[in-house]
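User: I'm writing a tutorial on reading structure tokens. Could you give me a worked example: one chain, its sequence, then its tokens, then a sentence or two explaining what the tokens reveal?
Assistant: Sure. Here is the example chain.
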Amino acid sequence: RDKSGTKLENIAAYDFKAAFSIDPRNGKISISEKLSYSSAAVIILTLQVKDKNAEENIEDQVATTEATLYIKAFNADNPVFPPPWTPSDPTISVNISENIPPGEALFNLGAKDPLTGEQISNYQKLNTDSPLGDLIQISQYGEVISQQVLDYEQIREISFSVSAIAGSPGQERISEAHITLLLTDVNDNAPVFSQAGYSVELNEDVLPLTPVVTVQATDADTGDKGKISYSLQGEGINEFMIDETSGVIQVKPGSLGRSNLDREWVESYNLRVIARDMPGGGSDQKSSTVIVKVNLLDKNDSPPQFSQSR
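And here are its predicted structure tokens:
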């Protein structure tokens, strides 16, 4: 019905029948399009529920009801939230870095009273169906505060609704906003190797580029913050090399095309492998280290020698 009470047929450009949707799993009714008070002030939805598990009289296992929605006109004197909020689209999305300490303000809602130009100092958080929304508190002055540290690896977004209230009791002017907090990833996880250490045996006469072992590390962060590059440092860098992307350690070719391995000189190596995230580098780049122990197996590659020539 329109604001005068006249029953409407769906012939206007405003399709009020498509303005709502219902979740078939839980019956939650949501707004799908912008509402227009001037086009339809009262909307009556006919709802139907069916018993999917019915075994007898299946066609009769149905019930219907009506939900009457009263669309309120927006008053120009009502509180106004900052853009992109509008009365016809009262949604606000805010990017928030993870790991902000609990009790510290994530951001300020910043609604104003259009009559006085002053900041609103009376907010009310509305009930939410999402348990994540319960993590959020709103201070008297519109500060959005989390009760716990928000971890991007556990929570990607939080949605809740809030009303800003102006005017004296009994003459309140109210506006609502639907807030979505979009968490952004911070590089707060270092790479973790799949093993605490590696140990392999290798013949001393293997050919150059022979694979020795593959190390693997993972990073719980996302994007470039979760990408890993590998490198060798210290002992064994002249005898071994590592593929920075795959973590495959190989025998390194020497200057004459042969390997530099010789058990008669060095029996074993403790290779220090470093896994770094953010391959492009950065001030918050993190790294981890693992030791790969390579024991060389002796081959009969040295002829006997007399202690004296004659």
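What the tokens reveal: The chain has a mean pLDDT of 89. The longest strand covers residues 173-184.
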